[in-house]
Structures
1.
Amino acid sequence: MRRFKQMAVTIFNELSGLRVTVVGLVLGFFLVLIGTLDQVNLGIYYTVKVYFKSWLVYWRGWPVFPGGLSIGLLLGVNLIFAHSKRFQWSMKKMGIWLIHSSLLVLLIGGAMSGFVTQESQMIIREGDTKWYSESMHDTELVVMQEQGDSVHVFQIDMADVRVSDSITMGPLIITIEERLANGILRLLDDPNRWQSAQGAGRYFSVEPRPVDRRPEARNHMAVWVRIHNQDGTDMGRFLLSSWLNHPQWVADSATISVRPTRYYYPYSVTLMTFTHRQHTGTSIPSYFSSDVVVTDESVRQPFHIYMNHPLRYRGTTYFQASFDDADTVSILQLVKNPVWWSPYFSCLVLGVGLVWHMIVMIRRLR
């Protein structure tokens, strides 16, 4: 027991030391540097995912560097241990406490934001109404079963699915046979080429493509699945792809599809008018905006969304991101971050701490 206590004290002293602080800051510096340089190859989304939202950074399957979560945890533990060991509670030390507490809030808030922030797009045509948005990077497998006047929807994230997995979704048992992260569908000259295939698989082949990591790119996942009914009846082999716009009928009451992950809202958004103006004599946009109506239960509220002036509603922020199809389609960027307040709160606490410490130092000098 005594030996264990001595070991715990040694670890505590090491983790609370300035050496750990310096090591953490140096590791963080190199992580930011490497991630910034590799952004040319990976793009913003994958750079953040690989370097800053991970515990370890891998190269050719081997862990070679601590990720942003590991470095943040190290600095957070170091800050807490250093405070508990060196700093004494007093009104004169209040400023130091507040300054370091603000850094801890910033670290914790940044880590939480990486896990809970939800980003998506709402692509909406003039006159249309939508109550959901779609992910730009994630894909889901969906089975819809009609039962009378209602439709039951079964969803699973494709990130949780592996080749050879068998999944029970409503009335169907789905086995994943092949999977492509990005594939383009090509129309077959002979529809009977794949005799064992059903649905779209009889008319299309899949051409593998490398994953496009540009921020504006959309990759189309494609999978070959074998589907059985609950009683064991083989329904056939189906080709599913997010490139297809419509689900495929598997049985009289069930459809299946692969599509971008959807996020549903308890209200709807209707695009009334989209406006797009360009600089004179050029094709460079000078202004584009969306006039929308949000219908929440029986309440209809009009809003004007334009560049650098988003709509904030029920915890979700709507940015005017882009447009398409001869200026009749508006592309809204949606961001939902429950801990958006953490950097503002951290800066407020930091400011109060600096002012408090400055007052204490001035009084000491006087």
2.
Amino acid sequence: MGRWILHVDMDAFYAAVEQLDRPELRGKPVIVAGLGPRGVVATASYEARAFGVRSAMPTAQARRLCPQGIFLPPRFDRYEEMAEKVRAILRSFSPLVEPISLDEAFVDLTGTELLHGPPERVAQEVHRRIPEETGLSCSVGLGPNKLVAKLASDSAKPGGLRIVRPEEVLDFLAPLPVEELWGVGPRTAARLHEKGIHTVAELRAVDLQLLQSWFGPKGGEFLWRWCRGLDDDPVVPVRPAKSLSHETTYPEDLFDPERIKAELRRLGLLVVDRLRAEGLLAQTVQIKVRFSDFTTVTRQTRLPEPTDHPCLLAGEAVGLLSRVAFPEGQGVRLLGVGVANLVPARFRALPLFAEERLGQVIGEVRQKHGPQALGFPCPG
């Protein structure tokens, strides 16, 4: 029995939801973005993309490209509501649904034939039901693994369905630019282009040992496998969190050291709120600092024991600031605090240098009254 993986990608999802809720916006260039001076585009409708507007583009640039665009702030609660409707449809065909983001997911259809018929029929049914039941357009790809299914749905955009059978994989991949393969970012693509390799077919002609000499043993092997459409990555319904973080881009650069420290404490407490909500402890604390010229530095430290104590984690975030060299004349554009090495909160070691009861009280107050109710009341 062959393996069959479905990939569903909602078309211009955030903008499409806005057009669904406000029919007067249909057919118009809708741009969902941060509206502040340093906002970025989350999603642009296809009408806006015709003007060159793209996701992750600064909102100011999008306004220059598409001055007639309708700019709207994101409504993530609404997008999550619609995404859950899509996931419910997918789960009706298989329990193995792996959301990659709000607007896309993989579905493992292997072995579901007796219940739902051939995978090709399921793909057609999914492609029909999602627009009928949600009012939103989707692109659907079906293939023998996640890599091929994802590339198939990309080739079907917007609103199409592409089925790539195992015997069709090599021909399907051959003309694609190497940039479309997983793991081929701008630097890898540039190196391949320097060597005259632009398409997957050209990459497939390169010997494994030569690829490994260029990109290392693992990198070379991945490229060799991907250009042949080989991918064993399973569909995992729930991925354990590897890290949690909060970051903020500021309307005006921060120069005051005490303001910067206060912001790190605030972000640290937001991360602690998420740790407690998800029942996790963290042993590594990280900070990110981006300066006015977009130079970005990160620093991290490892604690003796995993913890969710707000004073310890937020305090460590502030302490890491001493390891950051501030360029002369540069303010801080963005700050972020993250935690990693996460474990379930089954047992908490008592902190040596922080009052455990204080940490509990801080958490209880913030949970009951919201994060704005209590800042950083820890001593020191």
3.
Amino acid sequence: MSRETPMYGRREARGGGLWSGDGQTVPYSGESYYGRPALKPSHYRWLITGYLFAGGLAGASQIIATVADLVGRRGDRGVVRAGRYVALLGALVSPIFLILDLHTPKRWYNMMRIFRSSSPMSIGSWTLAAFGTLSGVAATGQVLEDLTAARVGRWTARLAGIPAAVAGAVMSCYTGSLLSATSVPFWAAVYRLLPPLFGTSAMSTAAAATSLAIDAAGAGEHARRSMEKIALVASTGELALTLACDWEWRRRGAATPLNEHPKVGLAYRFGVLGLGIVVPLFIHAIQTLTGRRSATATRLASISALVGGFIQRAVLTFGGNSSAARAEDYLRFTQPGQEVSGNGRAGQRVLA
């Protein structure tokens, strides 16, 4: 190639290219890539939705159990027990969803052959394996304590529970990093917000599951009020992060799945915001402020949070696939200096 020949991708501005004659970048002004998607949508469907939900819930449940074990009162033993058993159940279900989605079980084995610190998938696979093993040991110690009241069971559960809670914290958030480490506009636009959003949602659903478990087991009032406070804080954080994601999606022109995909939009507004966040937040706030607790209202809030948490993962999964299938979203999103005006259209500016 001679010096006079332009480099690949550099054409004159008069032809609608990427570079102007004075060396400034000119954002792409087209709306599609020859009428075809620029990205290939992921294969993620309901199995991955279930994995994202169960894994996060299990990780946060282990955190709740460990904190209650270390700093809680004697009346919080029901929270510890329920949290460890819920974490074990989630640790058993999560890899089933993941392996079924891989279609070939051997792929799971191949992922465990190496560890790559630069790969969210590799980090997640090893975290899931460590979390499942440690949660199994903690639950075994809990069973031993429940059946024999032996101190060795309690100490076994505590020693395994601490590293299990650390792995659980990663389990709660890493799936957000896994999705956002892509070129899909709906995920990449909120790459800083998605991991903490998954974390707060995981804590909200874990508090809901633990609350239902201790309620069925007849736990004391102190344990129930502790779970009420955890659920209130988690729901408040989830609402703030969801609204921040909503603002960022619209600012960067990545909110198309919420606006133009009827099922995703309805699920987001009524399932995620309404059922999953506002309803539990309202109930927990009223009961905390008034000091009056209704068992029926608490169950309603817990079930609402669990259903809404699952819908949130579905909205993010299917919304991301819808975003990837729209070439105009990707091409607009990747342009330097692109902004979105009030009417939802991308504005363009030239960068030096």
4.
Amino acid sequence: MDSQKTDLFIISNSKYFESHHLPQIREQLLKLDNSKWGMIQTLQFQDPTTLLIVSLLVGTLGIDRFMIGDTGLGIGKLLTCGGFGIWAIVDLFLIMGATKEKNMAKLQQVIY
């Protein structure tokens, strides 16, 4: 793929991924042919900051985990009221990283 398109994607979507994944993403995008560019452009990534806010407000109900696709963990948090509050507090520190990992997995599905 064209390096300008790759750099544009990296600049506009870097907040959705861990910083150590960005060189790997760039390398993989450069190897792709232009036919996948349309699919990559239409991907919708979850914003880690939005998920942090959701986790702050209603983390004990597991809505943050439901939003990123962790249905099992969301049900667990819902039934235990966020692990009696402890799990909800721990998730305040983990939810942004989990969101970025889910975004990376979504991108990997299209690339490979």
